[in-house]
Amino acid sequence: MNHSQDTGSRGMPEDRKLYIVDSINDLNRLTLCPAGSQHLLPLQEKIPDIGTNSGNGSHGLFFMGLIIVLIVSLVLVSFVIFLIVQTGNKMDDVSRRLTAEGKDIDDLKKINSMIVKRLNQLEAEQN
């Protein structure tokens, strides 16, 4: 019979076992000597603090959320940097093209002026 009580109490936390034993002792003191009931501990001191363990879980969730937010912001910043570099490369390409087209335009102006001079010479020879 004692063996069955031991197996039933194995699944309970140690704080809970002590609470049960204290409660039984308090009941025994109340029934045996009512004058000794003044020395009993208040109920709040006996109840194990279960909420403190769940607080660790909420801190863990907070830190996991913080880590996820930091990773997402790092990815977004990396993407923005990538876009800035790509935009810079495209701007370099456009400026090279404009410079090349500007040279082509200058060449076309020279050719046009040469043609106009030649046409003026031909017109002067015909007169």
TrEMBL record:
Cite the entry's keywords alphabetically. Answer: Membrane, Transmembrane, Transmembrane helix
Matching InterPro entries, A to Z? DUF4577 (IPR028099)
Any transmembrane segments, and where? 61-85
Protein name per its UniProtKB record: Leucine rich single-pass membrane protein 1
Organism (species): Suricata suricatta (Meerkat)
